[in-house]
Amino acid sequence: MRQLTVASLSRDVKFEGFLLVRSAEQRTSSNGGKYLDMTLCDTTGDINCKMWDGTVQPPRQGAVVKVRGTVQEYNGRLQLRVERLRNPGPEDDVDASQLMPCAPEKPESMLNEIHRVIDSMHTPELQKILREMIRMCGDRLNYYPAAQRVHHAEKSGLLHHTLSVLRAAEAMLPLYPFLDADLLLAGCIAHDLSKTAEFISDEAGNVSDYSAEGQLLGHLVHGVSQVQEAARRCGVTGEYVLLLSHMVISHHGQPDHGSPRPPMFPEAEMLHLLDDMDAKMNEMEGVMRRTPVGAFSEKIWSLDRRLYHPRTYAALAALAEEQAAAPAENASAYDGLL
């Protein structure tokens, strides 16, 4: 299945190929005409698509479709104007797994690493709460994304984001030895687990909508309830329940971003900083993939700015490929360059 990737598309490019349906609905334009508004994707990213044909019914979420169209620019963002759309047939031999955005590591491996961190803790109260919270998430934790859009919007993206924040915390702890390591690591693990109740996702990581809990409470408030319910179930009381609850409800940092309380102790502040950093780095990585070297991206609304793709990235990528292809005995020649 050789075709252009979504990340490689640019204005005026003709595209024909198979894409995965993230969302699709029939809408009515200002003149009363019907059209399809879709978000289609492959492993490299997604793109908004419009099909100005009111007779075509929207494909189901999670389906694979073949589309033909032209890339345009609307309000500073790329958009695919679809001219033809059909379902794949047996002769197409489409592998849907090649189109699904997925976390770079297997969910079993990521979850095992999280459990190893929990096992290494010296605070039984936190260990019990975390194990119960993970158990409460069930199988959803294996495939849920971390967001409907923006960062880690991929199959197993919630585990990917959680583990990235956790690894970043482990790297920072030696610099700030006064921090309660177990409390910080527990906050990293617990902070977004309630996203498994915030929205509705299929097993491919496609979010169809927000749940009632997600719309009425959000994952911060629901997350506090989850911490306290887990503590109740395993018989844990005391200050750690309060501290972990505060870390969950304050990890967005400020009211404008959804936190009714700012971080009020160092571990809570560190969690907020690491969570914000990982989300932004993941989003920027995706923008770099679809922005040509030496060019500026479209405006990224969640960041309120355009991003520049430095030319140095191309040189570093070439050097990395050269290093990977070099004999092992010559590897030292490249030490420190990356």
Topology (elements, then pairings):
Layout: E1 14-28, E2 34-42, E3 45-51, E4 64-74, E5 77-86, H1 107-120, H2 124-137, H3 140-143, H4 157-172, H5 181-190, H6 195-198, E6 199-201, E7 207-210, H7 212-216, H8 218-233, H9 239-250, H10 266-290, H11 312-325
Helix pairs in contact: 1-4, 2-5, 2-8, 4-5, 4-10, 5-9, 5-10, 8-9, 9-10
Short description:
The protein has helices at residues 107-120, 124-137, 140-143, 157-172, 181-190, 195-198, 212-216, 218-233, 239-250, 266-290, 312-325, and strands at residues 14-28, 34-42, 45-51, 64-74, 77-86, 199-201, 207-210. The chain is of the alpha+beta class and 338 residues long.
The total count of helices amounts to: 11
Largest sheet: 5 strands, mixed, barrel
Beta-strand content: 15-25%
Percentage of residues in helical conformation: 25-40%
Strand order of the largest sheet: 1-2-3-5-4
Low-confidence parts, pLDDT < 50 over ≥5 residues? 329-338
Find the count of extended strands (DSSP E, 2+ residues): 7
Distance between the termini: 33 Å
> Element order, helices and strands?
EEEEEHHHHHHEEHHHHH
Write down the overall geometry: globular
Structural class: alpha+beta
Average the pLDDT over all residues and give the rounded result: 89
Give the C-alpha Rg.
22 Å
Describe this structure in words.
- This protein has helices at 107-120, 124-137, 140-143, 157-172, 181-190, 195-198, 212-216, 218-233, 239-250, 266-290, 312-325, and strands at residues 14-28, 34-42, 45-51, 64-74, 77-86, 199-201, 207-210.
- The chain has 11 helices and 7 strands.
- With 338 residues, it is α+β, with helices and mostly antiparallel strands.
- Helix 5 (181-190) packs across helix 9 and helix 9 packs parallel to helix 10.
